[in-house]
Structure formats: C-alpha cells, structure tokens
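[SOLVED] Need 3D model of a two-part complex

Original post:
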Amino acid sequence: MSEFQKKAAYNVAIAGATGAVGETFLNILEERNFPIAELKLLASKRSAGKELTFKGKTYKVEELTHDCFEGVDIALFSAGGGRSLEFAPSAVKAGAVVIDNSSAFRMDPKVPLVVPEVNPEDAFKHNGIIANPNCTTIVMLVALKPLYDYSKIKNVIVSSYQSTSGAGAQAMEELENQARQWVNGEDIVVDKFAHQILFNVIPHVDSFTENGYTKEEMKMFNETQKMLHDKDIKVSATCVRVPTLSAHSEAVTVETVEPISVEKARELFAAAPGLEVIDDPANAKYPMPLFVAGGDTCYVGRIRKDIARENTLTFWVVGDQLRKGAATNAVQIAELFVQ
Amino acid sequence: MSEFQKKAAYNVAIAGATGAVGETFLNILEERNFPIAELKLLASKRSAGKELTFKGKTYKVEELTHDCFEGVDIALFSAGGGRSLEFAPSAVKAGAVVIDNSSAFRMDPKVPLVVPEVNPEDAFKHNGIIANPNCTTIVMLVALKPLYDYSKIKNVIVSSYQSTSGAGAQAMEELENQARQWVNGEDIVVDKFAHQILFNVIPHVDSFTENGYTKEEMKMFNETQKMLHDKDIKVSATCVRVPTLSAHSEAVTVETVEPISVEKARELFAAAPGLEVIDDPANAKYPMPLFVAGGDTCYVGRIRKDIARENTLTFWVVGDQLRKGAATNAVQIAELFVQ
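Solution:
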C-alpha cells in the first residue's frame, strides 16, 4: 500500500463488523466520508447473515474466511487476536493492507504500530500489516507526544479508569443490565467481568503476567517504547475497570529530563493534534468520560506541577476508547495513505 | 483525658449523629461494645427530635449547642468543619475530650492527628482535641506504615477511586437515585456532585487550591507528613470520585530509600495491624470496594515491583472510608485511653 496507486475510492473490508469496535468502524468511515468503492462486512459464522447499515444502504455480513479478501484494498480487523493471526495473512496475500486492532502483531518488529498524531512515518514501513495500538495506550500517547517532543520522558506512572465497552459491546450491556437488575431487586448476573462491575471497581484488565502486571499494563509499557522508538521511557500502569459505559480516563504522572512548567505544558497540549485542553477547575471543568464519549479528540485537564518529585508533571486525560482508542485511529492510519 | 481516671464506662456524645459517619459511629460503638455509661446524640436543630437506635434502645437526637456537653467524657464530632470549630471548644471546656472527624483541627500543631496503627503515641499529647485524619489518607497510611518502618519513603504517587458515601449519605443516595432514574428513563438529577456520577468518574473531590491540587489531595500530602513526623515524605495524589457506594480504592506507587522486595513487602503488609493481603490475581483475587465495604480492615493487593523506577513498589489498597476511614478510626482513638 506504500506503493499503492492513489484511487478515487478503495475496496474496504471490516473483519469483526458486528463487534463494538466493528460497528464504530462503520460510524467513523461514514462520518469521515472515507472514499469507499466496495464495502465488505465480515464476521464469524455465527454472525454471518446479520444486516448492518452504512450510508443508508443495508449490507449483509459475510463469513470471515481465507478466500474472502479478493479485490480488497484495505482490511480493518477487529475480530480478536486469534482471528487476526489466522486471517490477516490471507488478506495480505490477496493484496490488501491490514490495519489490525488486536494485540496479535503489535510487538512484531516487522509490523509498524501507529498513532497518526505520534508516529505517522512508521505507517509507511509496513509489510502488509499495520497494528493499531492498545486503546489505553493511544489515549495516553496523544497527550505524552507533545511533552516528549519538548523533553525526553524518563518515566510515567499511570492509573486508568477504563470503561466497560473496552471489553466489548456485551460487557457494556452487562453494566446496563446490572443497573436494571439492581433497581428491580433481581439477582445481579456476572458474566463478562470477573466480578460485578456495577457499584464496583476491578483492578484487573486483561490477564496477569509473571511480574504481577496485567497484559494491558504491559502493553502500555511496551507499546509506548515501540511508538516513541525509545527504550529508556518506562511506563508503570495500574489498569482498573470502572462502571462507566464509554471513554477511558487516566491519571498520568510524567517525569521529564528537562523541566516543563505547567504553562508550557498547557501550551504544548493546546497546540497538539487530536488533543484539547479542558482545565478550568474553579468552574468544575475537567475532562470526564460521560461527556467525552462519542468524540475523536482526547481531552486533558488537571494539569499541575507534581508536588512529590522534581521535573514531574501530573495530569488527567480522557478519550473515547472505541473511537480514538480503536476505530478512529485505524481509519486515520488508512487516511495517511489515501489522502 | 490523658490523665483520665479509668472508669467502668464513659459518657459519650456524638455530634453529627444523623450523618453518614454519625450513624456509622453508632454501629461501631455497638459492635466493639465500647464502655458507654450515657450516650448523647447531637445534631443540628433541623435533625433534633429524630430517633436513633443503639443497642436496642431508642435515643432522641438533641440539638448541638454550647451547653450540651456537661458531664460528657468523650465527644465524637462529625458534623462538618464549621460546627467543629464552633462547638468543639465548648465540649473541651465542659471537660470532654473531642475526637474530631472534620478537617478543622487536623493541621493545628497543638492537635494530634492519629491513626492508631500508625502513631498511637501522639494521641496522648492532646490538649482536649484529637483529630481524625482524612479518610483517603487513613486507608493509604495503614498500608504505608509497615513499609515506612522498614525503609523511609521518599515519595508516593496515588490515584484514588473514591466512593460516593465519602461525600455523605445523601451523595450515596444520589448515585442510587440516578441508577433508578436511568433505568426508568427519567431525567438524571444532579445535586451533591458537580456532575452526574452514574456511569461517570469525576476528578474532583473537595475544592481546588492554588497549585492545581484539590484540598483532598493536599490533605494526603500534609496529613501524611504530620502523622509520620517526616517533612521529607512527599505525596502527590489525584483524587477521583467513582460510582461506587462505599469503600475507597487507591493505586499507590511508593519510592523507598532502601529497596523493598515484593516478598518482603508482602511479609510486612501481612504482619501489619488493621491490614490484610488479598493478592492472588491468577484466581482473580484482589481487594475491591464492593466486597470490602462494611469492614474495619484495609486490604492490599496487586503488590509488584515497579517497572518504571528503582526502589519503587506499586500496590492497590481498599478500605471502607466510613468505617476505618472515619468512625472506626475515631473509636479506636478513644479505645487507646479506655483500655
């Protein structure tokens, strides 16, 4: 695709079209008026036959198979890591460029990992597959990048407040159902999370690794290093699921090599692409997931000089993890090529 | 009271008896079988006349006045900082020792600030008033103390996940009401918090100060220094309200002077009073507010060596802020004298 001939419109396939991110892909492609010639919606056999609407036209979901990618220019994958590993190579073989939202290829040295606001140049070094980073990492990186360009970053301590829809559409429905069950005095049904999420917080996102961090937390460490091409930046994350529907929030503490004043940080944030400052605490204005959900911008606030350590800034960043944290970022990667 | 004659039982007054902490005072005094001769329940004029039950006996709430403390040995205050400033001196003048749950006297150098697991000896240096620390600080300090005794602590980065009941009984009801309103398709009513708390998180607890931190966040900085008698320990907090009912959770990162291994930390935590380790992530076992609420113990889990910095540990601590974070801690302070 780096040598792609520019076309008026492209044949686009979405693998995992019926999932939370898949449906968001459709919204984003429509909103951004992505130049689509033919659209192919793909999902597992179970979901094949379902109908989805795009720009007022109804599309029947087809089964994701090895042979379904003929003629496809761009394949957006969000069908889980297993399906990406199995089917992405077939898409590449058929001539498509895959933009994969799973974690399957992210740390593969042959696969670029890209946030267009952070490292767009990496996208052009692909070998057929470009990986979309972890959602929590994307939201943080959009805010870290302008600071990093001003001064290298030594380390980041981050605590997340992650929405239920980060675990899929059904996980979000589980929170809504638990609210109904609680109000109606029924038993609370727990299925998608390890524990009840209504009126609770769960310090457990993705599975645990040997060092006591979860895979989600290690993604923030590893993917940040890969995208910034800097093995010296160290990220320690505590990822926590909270009972919100959409948008992830993060309390971020950043130690920089050079000092950055609050005023300078605000200036850097304000000038950064994809980022907006909401930081007027006297009027109770700061980013919150309830009000940020549905947008493509990440919002930063509570910007302050850290009172515990030198050369350290503390702030709060919120972004819609289904959109900028997943679908929007993937479509923005595709746009790097087609614009 | 430091020179108090030991008695078989004490006359106890509760100022603010009808609030969230006030009612918890009654539960704790009953559960712990505190030696009470006479019990006096006090509240504002508005709440006077209400009836509350203690050990099966009904008590009528009296109005909190300057003259109501005659004969009282111990006055437990949780009626807001303004009422503490106004009425605590009257209680002291009448011969009572005040244990005050508000922030009014906490940083007064003549007033000891005490967590019995942390600095019980300070309680005996009182001049009539002993201050109960901020709830979020208490929960954190119970976990920090055993580490601090092993190695001095340089700094702490903490992000909180604070329950609605930390803002009072009505604030907790607001979350419950918002759940009902949402399920019934009604307008969501916002009153006690600056924004809707259902399906949201709000990075704003208490009012903001000039350095961009909230008063709540600065309490964690100042009160920690005061209780550990150490001006070198620096705490940077981000305090966030989350849609839970009871118990505060905190993601804590601690840089120590001497290294502490995870094994040693676990051993220190396990041996510490008032603290229990729940740290079996492979079996999805870690502390969570939904399951910890209602107890007096603080629970620590997710203990790991920080991957971003040297000599740093990261963990997760949860405690019921109405009980250990307020009422239980105050009653434990009283018990230091009567036992």
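Edit: Chain B touches chain A through 61 residues (CB under 8 Å).
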